[in-house]
Amino acid sequence: MLRQRTRKSQGFACSGMATLSRLCYPSSPLPSMKGRFQKAEFPVEKVRCYLEPGPIVLVSSALGEERNIMTMGWHTVMEFTPSLVGCVIAESNHSFRLIRESGECVINLPTRALLDEVVGIGNTTGAEVDKFATFGLTPEESRVVNAPSILECCACFECRLADDSLVRKYNFFVFEVVYARAARRPKHPETLHYTGNGVFMVSGKILSRRAKFRPELLD
């Protein structure tokens, strides 16, 4: 559900960009891209609106005959090898028990075409509805884990719980991605980023500066 945070945060986590000043301070004009920014005091409990690093994802899970999907914006890459991803899942969320007990989940990447499904999933609980059926999403058998993947998502990352030492204190799960699949096209999918208050941004123009990078820093 959207209001799943228990420690003064609620709803989706925000994905921040400078353009959020329009949302936070509607009367303030946007400064030039390379100008000097005139800044005002900002609520410390809302800095997440600028710092959230990644796109909205749909996390699917299963335990026995139960299955569920949750909308998540609070996640971060922690390591490349092994591939570790940290996620915040509130204990009040129906997926919490399924993932904690099964030790597995799939992180699915939706595009803007699934915006309404993303919002609907975040506003309902799997304790009351089957979200696959309710929102017309197709469960797809995963390659390694028992949790289903979502066919309509452009990438699926199968995960096993690697470290739960921070779950009790912070609801913070560390997952290892044990198998990954991604669509070949589009190369840069239009992912969704949540800014709070029911407003989303879509990933935009792609900018390349490969020529300015040291070769050892590139794939």
UniProtKB/TrEMBL annotation:
It comes from the Bacteria. Keywords: Flavoprotein. GO terms for molecular function: FMN binding; oxidoreductase activity, acting on the CH-NH group of donors, NAD or NADP as acceptor. Its cofactor is FMN. The keyword Signal does not apply. The keyword Nucleotide-binding does not apply. InterPro entries: Flavin_Rdtase-like_dom (IPR002563), Flavoredoxin (IPR052174), Split_barrel_FMN-bd (IPR012349). Signal peptide: none annotated. It holds the Pfam family Flavin_Reduct. Residues 49-201 form the Flavin reductase like domain. Belongs to the flavoredoxin family. This is Flavoredoxin.
